[in-house]
Specification:
The structure is a homotrimer.
Chain A lengths: L13 E6 L8 E5 L2 E7 L5 E5 L13 E3 L2 E3 L6 E2 L5 E3 L14 E2 L1 E4 L2 E5 L29 E5 L3 H9 L4 H4 L9 H5 L2 E7 L2 E11 L3 H7 L7 E10 L3 E10 L14 E13 L2 E10 L6 H31 L14 H16 L1
Antiparallel strand pairs in A: 1-11, 2-3, 3-4, 4-9, 5-6, 6-7, 7-8, 10-11, 12-18, 13-14, 14-15, 15-16, 16-17, 17-18
Helix pairs in contact in A: 1-6
Chain lengths: 353, 353, 353
Amino acid sequence: MFLSTERQWPLNAWYQAAWSHEVADAPLARTLLNEEVVLFRDAEGKASALEDRCCHRATPLRLGEVVAEGLRCGYHGLTFDGTGRCVAIPGQDTIPRNAKVRSYPILERQEIVWIWMGDPDLASADKLHVDFPWNDDHENWPHIHDMYEIDCNFMLLVDNLMDLTHIPYIHRKTIGGGDQRGQVDATMDVTETETGVHYIRWMEGIVPPPTYVKGAGFTEGTLVDRWQEFEYVVPSSVVQWTGALEAGRGARADREQDGGFNLRLYHGITPKTESTCYYFWTPLNGYKPKDEAATRILHEEIAVTFDEDLEFLESQQACMAQTLDRPLVNVKHDVARVPARRAIERMIRAETA
Amino acid sequence: MFLSTERQWPLNAWYQAAWSHEVADAPLARTLLNEEVVLFRDAEGKASALEDRCCHRATPLRLGEVVAEGLRCGYHGLTFDGTGRCVAIPGQDTIPRNAKVRSYPILERQEIVWIWMGDPDLASADKLHVDFPWNDDHENWPHIHDMYEIDCNFMLLVDNLMDLTHIPYIHRKTIGGGDQRGQVDATMDVTETETGVHYIRWMEGIVPPPTYVKGAGFTEGTLVDRWQEFEYVVPSSVVQWTGALEAGRGARADREQDGGFNLRLYHGITPKTESTCYYFWTPLNGYKPKDEAATRILHEEIAVTFDEDLEFLESQQACMAQTLDRPLVNVKHDVARVPARRAIERMIRAETA
Amino acid sequence: MFLSTERQWPLNAWYQAAWSHEVADAPLARTLLNEEVVLFRDAEGKASALEDRCCHRATPLRLGEVVAEGLRCGYHGLTFDGTGRCVAIPGQDTIPRNAKVRSYPILERQEIVWIWMGDPDLASADKLHVDFPWNDDHENWPHIHDMYEIDCNFMLLVDNLMDLTHIPYIHRKTIGGGDQRGQVDATMDVTETETGVHYIRWMEGIVPPPTYVKGAGFTEGTLVDRWQEFEYVVPSSVVQWTGALEAGRGARADREQDGGFNLRLYHGITPKTESTCYYFWTPLNGYKPKDEAATRILHEEIAVTFDEDLEFLESQQACMAQTLDRPLVNVKHDVARVPARRAIERMIRAETA
């Protein structure tokens, strides 16, 4: 609907289905790329994903229970293991060969449950292009996981993250406050990568925004050098490292100095349907890792910011869906957004060729 | 949508439109087999059914009033008698011949208002195949009438009643509690009839479920012989007689003994649309007929049970409607459900041949 | 859907977009004739209307802000003047020629903001056929503006106003109370005009309805001569003058006498979609113009009356939309309604010929 290719997403790719902690001893239902999926974790701790439909009477398996043998349908008790094979039918000994449901390859890494919705024979771990080791390092990068369901095409959220000049407009009361002009006129270095696009923006000697002041405790009148480093990785991850140091401390040369403000953010954006998506996000506290309250406050501040985006994304979706025949006009600040779109369209074309 | 024939229901058949007490001196609107119908009772007590649309300006007649002459439209006062003829137009003496609305044959019996949605010339009382005399016997079978609107195809509800192995799963906290295995492994006698299917299940020497204990006052440790007798009558009635006697009292030979637990249930299931239905139900207290509180408690317990079914039926409907192209697998316990489906499909085919 | 022509409304005509006071320093979004429009008023007080979609990323402009240069998009800051031209893009000096949004001709008169949704080259002030000078005379005709969003085709509301025999039925508890028969049997003088239809109804020597008694203070037992004068002006205005004088005071010869009950009402009905509309209305207090409380009470009484119509209009819409293939029957009291329909159909045919 919003891409120049007909297909909205590649099928043969890993998508985030859930945060690891969400997949536990109760079935978890998700709509992924237009399919109804149910996730569960067995007694050995292995996560599995099945189609959310019993093969007996089309009842959703999410209404069932996780038992020793697998996932048991809540209607008449048919039970399926993690491969989708029916392993028990109450009241009968022989299980027909066609009693099975579809299962989906799962890969669990760095606190993320990845799912492969395409051809299972093509699934392999080396096709996961994103790496976010900080998720495994709660000591130095403490963080809280979150997920929003948003009524917009998943790429509208990628668009949002690829053009940060929206910050001084949408977020002028939170992270976009302070020096509006300085934020729009940041330097911008964009590099196309094999799997997406990378950019870094620098705003030097600017007044820090309220969120940064609150987080890092910059004193009244301090100017800062602020950076925003983002990488989009197809099909639907964005890795972020942003922060600020007092001007004069040489942030450009060394961003890993103590003090200042410094956070990483993982964004996982998975299509539910053409017009809806899951937005998995977690901000990692890199500036006061021993301070639990700081981690919590950081999470709350980011949540407020994302809430501001929601109204825009959902209104944009509704408007765009109604006006697909009308032209759009790119501007200079689409310099990272446009190659991000090209990257996913390339991936879709390669798959459908 | 859920039958192998194209048509979802026979038209030339009696369907429950309402309980008798529901049709009173105010118009009652119902959507029946995709048509908007309004029911009312005239001063002589005769129930009538008209299309719910004034022939003047397509205003629903349900917004009108029952007056001496019939049903008066609430917008401009046109009045229609029970045959659908316009008998009054305010401000004019001559009534045009085409001023009329459609009327539907009505048959009222055993506290049920039956409606005929098909060809009126084919309607006759002998085509009502269901008989439930206990509705007329409030002394020995006191009961309360109820109705649920459910977002599922009407035959999913019939399916539900034709395979009681769902009870130890969906209703494990109410009527399905106690001996789960014993309930699944009941003996099952199925007989196809001219108008549907009949079955009786026996569970002998089992722990009674909590609902039965509450109702009949079985003492701690008592085992019972429990029966479930059901008959499906096309197109959409299910007649039920269930109960339990202490094991050893010879329930199989004589179920009409005093004591124990014993109820009849009438289920009337009428399609609103392909994906929604009305579920008329009334449980009749045959075990403590003089005890008003027992009748009320029975009704409440059954309501709790049916509430448990609702989530399953509506989720199943949504899932099935989305996956019509996917196969389903019958199991041994579909032994009554499958002939019930065959019976209604036969009836539809006979009508459309 | 409800007209015998295919098109639902003429495009080349003035429609009420808003009351003047509604268009202020914040953007106001309206759906007009199936198009999303945003209205705003610039620093000089000039009202403008643009399509509610930024040409950059299809974000609704209603989420933006009115600034000195025009309306600024809330997402990335593009700014448009009242003609739809983009006058600012943050971060770039050159503005591409195709950076523009559609604008709509606006005409503001008598407290109404009129919009022209068709070919802008055809828009001219002389094509506004309705005149309601009393809106500008708050001293002698004090009034409060209101607007309802109604889920019905706009012409169903015109129909409602063209056949007042609905009053003793729908409004029997408010303005239709009192002498029901007398109200139905009013004399009715209908005149087709070049731009619609005019009628006046007289009910002489009748018991006044409760609303009139409350408003004018008629004493117990007083009979009145009551008039209802209405004019429909294509495409979607209805101008009303109604009132009552004590019987014997010669109301027919002179309705402008002091005392009695006397109000004017402006009805502006603008299609949102085929099945929804905006209903702009204001009742003008012509009987106690110095009495602020009377103006407020009049407004509240009329609001109660219109609330009674709402259920009918929305139910009628739903019923009519479902039964377009079924015939309707006109009655004698459609004598003004039918020429009103003919007038708008003539206008649509002239435009589409």
